[in-house]
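Reviewer 2 asked us to include a model.

Predict the structure of this chain.
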Amino acid sequence: MNPYEQKRRWKYLLLAFAVVIACGSLLYTRFLVKGIARAERTRAQVWALSMKQLFQIDDNDSYVYVTSVRDSLSVPAIVVDEKGDFVTAKGLDSTKTWMPQSADNQRPGKKPLKSDTSYFRAQLDYMKSQHEPIRINTFSNQYWLVYYQDSVLLTQLKVFPYIQLSVIAVFLLVAYTAFNTSRKSEQNQVWVGLAKETAHQLGTPISSLMAWIELMKDKFNAEDDPLIAEMENDVKRLEIVADRFSKIGSKPKLELHPVYAVVKDYVDYFKVRVSNKIHFELVGDETFEAGLNIPLFDWVLENLLKNAVNAIDETGNIRVEISAHATKRQVFIDISDTGKGIPRSKFLAVFQPGYTTRKRGWGLGLSLTKRIIENYHNGQIFVKDSEVGKGSTFRIILENQTTYHE
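Predicted model (C-alpha cells):
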C-alpha cells in the first residue's frame, strides 16, 4: 500500500470515529429528551386532573390548595372548551393573555377570558403540533381540552447537542487547518533549503565536466563529434536540473515562447535516450505561443514522457499533439501513449503525492507536474482519456498568448 492510500485510510477511520462520537452524543441526548418529555407529560396530566378537581370542591380552602398545586406546575398550557373557545392558560405572556386575579374567578361557569387573538392562536397551533391534548370532563356532558408545550429547558436540550457539535466541528476545523498550514510551512522550508543546497553542490562538478568536454574537443579535434555533442547536451541538462533546484521557493518568471518549438527541443533530446523500439510523433501548429518557464516546463515534459515510456512494455508509440481551442484562448498539449492505461477510478489519484504503480517509484512526478502547471503556469493538467491495456492521454491546457499579425 502506498503512503497516500494509507494516509487516506487513516483519515477515513478518524472520520468514522468522529461520526460514532457524534451519533452517540445525539442518541444519549435524545434519551434524556424523551425522559424529560415523559415527566412533562405527567405534570400536564396532573395539571389537568387538578383542573377537573376544581369542579368537585365546595370549600374554599380545598379549592385554594388544588389551585396552588395546579399553578406550581411549570408546563405552559392552554385550556379550550369543546367549541374551541379559550377558557384559561398558564405559563404564557401575561401581557397578551389576561389571567384572572383571584381563585374565585377561575371557578367553572365563569365567562371565558379575553386574550390577544393572534398570539393565542399562534400558541395554540404550536401546542397542537407538539402534543395530543388531555381531555377533562366537566359538567352537563361537556369537556375541556388541555394543550401544553415543551418547557424552555426541554427545548434548549433538544437544540444543545447540535450547537455543541457545530462548535466542536468549527474548532477542530480551525485547529486542523492551522496545524496543517504550520506543518506544511515547516516542511516547505526544509525542502527549499535542501533543494538549494543540492543545486549548490551540483554546481562545481557540472562546471568541471563542461571544462573537461572543452579540453576533449581541443585535444582530439572533435568539435563535430556526435558523441561529445550528446555528452555536452547531457551536461547542459544537468545545469538545467541544478537551475530548477536553485529556483525552488521563488516565483518563476514566465516568458513568451512558441509551444511547438519548446516541446520539439525536449522531445528531440529525450527520444535518443530511450529504446529505439518506441516511436515518437510530434504534430500540431507551430505558431501558438504561451507564457513558459522553460526549465520547469521541460520538467513537466520529462515526467510525462518518462511515465509514457514506463507504461509501454517493449514496443509502442508516443504521440504529442499541439492544438488550440477555436474560441477560447487556450493551447492544448495532448501526450498519448500505447501503454498499460489507467483505470478510470484512478484518474484523480495519479496526481496525489505518493501514488505510484512502480516498486521503486516515489510517486512524486505527476504531483510535481500538476503543481508546476497549475501554480506556476496558471494552466490545467488532467487525464483526458485512458483505457486499461490500450493507453492513456494526458492533456495540458495553457493560455494562448499568440500574437497574430495582419
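Residues 253-399 form a domain with the Heat Shock Protein 90 fold (CATH 3.30.565.10). Residues 99-112 have pLDDT under 50 and may be disordered. We have added this to the supplementary material.
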